[in-house]
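Complex 445.
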Amino acid sequence: MFKKILIANRGEIALRIIRTCKEMGIKTVAVYSTADKDSLHVKFADEAVCIGKPASVDSYLNIPHLMAAVEITNADAIHPGYGFLAENSKFAQICFDHNIKFIGPTPEMINSMGDKITAKETMIKAGVPVVPGVEGLLRDVDHAKKSAAEIDYPVILKATAGGGGKGMRVVWEEKEIEKSFENAKTEAAASFKNDGIYMEKFVEEPRHIEIQIAGDQFGNVCHLSERDCSIQRRHQKLVEESPSPFMTTDLREKMGEAAIKAASAINYESVGTVEFLVDKHRNFYFMEMNTRIQVEHCVTEEVINYDLIKEQIKIAAGDKISGRNYYPEMHAIECRINAEDPYNDFRPSPGRITVLHQPGGHGVRVDSHAYAGYVIPPYYDSMIGKLITMAQTRDEAIDTMSRALSEYIIEGIKTTIPFHIQLMQNEDFRKGNFTTKFLEGFKMS
Ligand code: MV4
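Predicted structure with MV4 bound:
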């Protein structure tokens, strides 16, 4: 097992990783930017190294600074968390070249899922259902026009280097295709330095349901059931839950098997997530695979009673996984508490938290790096923490969430708490009657 892990991240996920390391008897090194010197991950780690100025490129994304911190602290592994360098194959390769274990998949595995056309071709070969579309890149506007006519409108244009919505365009009729194709190409080039665009049939009003998987270095892969992440706004997830209210035993079995096929096709090692679109007839299609631990991993942890960070570290150290699949025995919901104003188009609201009271009691988990007096810096994401509740049934988990939200006191900045309070009262949400379009029609009262 590792003796000392450097955590190349900040905020709640850095703290989350430190907690598991402590339980495993592993020493921890925090790295921090000058904007984060008073952060909890710095206080709770065994050692801490300042790696630069506030901007991410000068600190959490700065590979030479991180490798210098590894060297001076003598860490033997790096945990990248999520975001920042978590899916950067060059970083994973540099760790490998320096004999430092990158706690995650190999650079080859990251690359095979990073390029979306490559990933889709791999999935087709492996027998994983994908959205019908055109194979490979669109050569030009003419090719796009012909292809759309074949597939039939509406279609969606996606960037092969993309993911998470950037460079994406839905096209409803032929007169829009030329402009949409050019716009998608320009946006992809600017965002990813890669203007490759491909086309799929547009699936209307889908649910976003993802399967958590784990694979070890011996070729064993298992699934740990699903999370429903349909409650999103501009590709930012706000609420996640497990199990999905739309799930059936039969669909879980099929999607679980498909996710295992997807991960096995690239000999996946580490924990990861296979994202699917699910239409109203319960047809499901591979969307992308995330080769990292995700923000919403906690709901899975609660419903199967399993520490995913511990499992991820054990897999990286060469342990075998149990080899069986895991099924929800509870219901868990996660609300992302962000420093954003839900009454003002979710505008960021960084600044000092003057008063803080976090909820507790039966069925409540809070993963947060916040404390009274803490300043949410403007340089990074706006998450203050995650509130997770769990109970035997979905209704009870929602009731517990409503109660916990009503206890949460954060003063000094605006937060998403009022949004979550209203969502928990929403009739359609309570019925489990929602798709990825749900928040487009949601108004704060
Ligand atoms: C789609 C789709 C409909 N049809 N692909 C959004 C982010 C990226 N991962 C893929 N996305 C979508 N791909 C086809 N063929 C709809 C979306 C989509 C979406 C997906 C999941 C959650 C929220 C979403 C919001 C808008 C669009």
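The chain has three domains: 4-103, 132-201, 207-441.
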